[in-house]
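Why does this matter for the project? Reviewers at the last site visit asked to see concrete outputs rather than summary tables. In response, this paragraph embeds two records directly. Each consists of the residue sequence and, immediately after it, the corresponding structure tokens. Nothing has been edited or filtered.
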Amino acid sequence: MGVENPVNPPVSVAIATFNRALMVAEAVEGALRQSHAPCEVVVSDDASTDTTVNVLQQLATADARVRVLRHSHNSGGIDNWNHAMEETRGTYIAWCSDDDVFEPGHLAASIRFLEKHPDIGLVHSGFADRIDSQEGRETIYRPLRSSKPLLTNAGNLLWYMIRYYDWPFHPSTMVMRRKVWEQTGPFNPAYSLADTDWFVRAAERFSIVLLPRHGVLNRRHAGNWSNRLGSARMQAEIFEIVESAIGRRWPAGSLKHTCWRIVWRANTRLRLLLTVRARIQNGHAEAAVSSWKGLTRQTGRKMPVWFEQWGERRIRHAASRRPSCIADGLQSVSPL
């Protein structure tokens, strides 16, 4: 890779893609346009069947920094994420989902902060929603959570996950030191929300800072991973991820383990109830019922069958009295 420039340390951008030719082209171009230019943009294709590979090859021909990798068979997603990350070579690694686009100055601001704070392993940022619809494209900047950098580490990780349960982080804003990836380990394919599990494991080892800026345009569209996965399943995975973190932090049966588990489970049940209410108000009966079943089955104590069925009837009746609202550009659950 040559001699490292201490003024402009090398950063690799990792992108994993599958059948998103136009979107991944925007993601790659957004990375290449950064004022802190990446030394490479590594794109791992998961055996796409559309024109994604042709588009990527054109980008690689136009700019030698674009490295295109390809699986011969579809891996299912998470293994492809790991492949993209593992093939990077920079001192820093930035992740970008194939349907998102870096905001101008994202890499420069992130690496500048990391260079000034050697005790911080990873930074992430706020984001804006880019909503694509038949009427056109709209960009909505989400309010920043803090006017100052917000620190997360092993000491306050559980409070952070409780406070920011809906959106603990946006994966496409993550910029990290290479040692964070190497010591935390790869994304765990046991989870569809493998990035959330990875974020929690990273925070157990390293200090993480949320920067008070917008780092990425988060594209909202029908093909979003979060849309395909579904709110109830996502929340069930978040529940399990944090339960596992509690188990790693304190031995089962200890006072702190018991107390934190009670707090976490109460928080999850409240969040699921709020999701049920929101889905009822939008007339989404199936989504509301799915969240209700998650609450009754997957939050540490299974409710009686009669109670679950009673609740389902009530939910369906309430949702049927409201017009269905299809527009759901701003979801409240952590995206991919």
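We now turn to the second protein, recorded in exactly the same manner.
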Amino acid sequence: MPHVRANGIDVHYTAEGNGPPLVLLHGASSSALEDWSAQRPLFRKVFRLYLVDLRGHAGTRGALGPHLDTTGLADDLLATADALGLATFHLAGFSLGGLTALQFAIRHAERLRTLVLVGVDPQPEPRASVARVLMDPERIERQEPAWAAQLERRHGPVQGPGAWRDLMRALHAGMRTETPIAPADLRRVRVPTLVVTGDRDVFVPVDHAVAFYRQLPEAQLCIVPDCGHQAMVLRPRIFGDVAEQFYRATAAVATERATAGRSPRGSGGGPRRAPMPGAVLPSGTTPGPSGTRDAPDPANGSGPSDTTAPPDTTAPHRPHPAAGGVR
């Protein structure tokens, strides 16, 4: 299991593929390998992937603390990128990992080539209220013993027996103290950004996702139909096609940012918005490629079918096992 020493912890990561570096971050209580499993076959054909486990999760060793917040996790990410020698890189994060990626982008936009955020809301509610119920360890053991066993298998070997209970408490404690991210901070994210959310996400209402997208200077938006929180798991083909189009459309800017090692200046004076064609994609829609050298090649495969996981509903529930837990 490869690790790097970063910010006082031993960060576990999996590296695979060849090409520009792409760091992938997972959701709360999960792992990078599990959350991004459906996209790995496509992404690693074009990118050098770094699938990173967050503090307190899966294979990463180190102190958890009484609460886990995204600003601290962003500090971990900075130290991890430095330890891996990544001067600039593409970054994608889901839910907790997406909020971590957003915090990183606010503070270190010059380090990023592009940014993909899935299931992310800069507002703490309703996320914190939903998580208060779903993340209660006693409730999980009482009502969902199979999920408790899954959490033990995921975290127990490295974190220690029963450590998932402390992880859940630390995650919820971090959410309780979380404050909304200010619009002024969001405007600092001058990075080509793709925002993806499911239209049935109980953690991220659609109107929140639209408001979030509108505050980012260089953002695109995709609202995935008939889909809950884990868009890349529940609708992998749609997500893969949208991500492919995004990476193709932003390839030139990503190359510029990689070369400069900082946010480009004086390139037009205003936001470089390029909303996706039809921000709300109808079921079965697959955006067409536009073709650049840094993008995935659709001829080499487009990932698993959308039928690999069922759609979730509008009611809070334990996420599909393939997604690995609460976000």
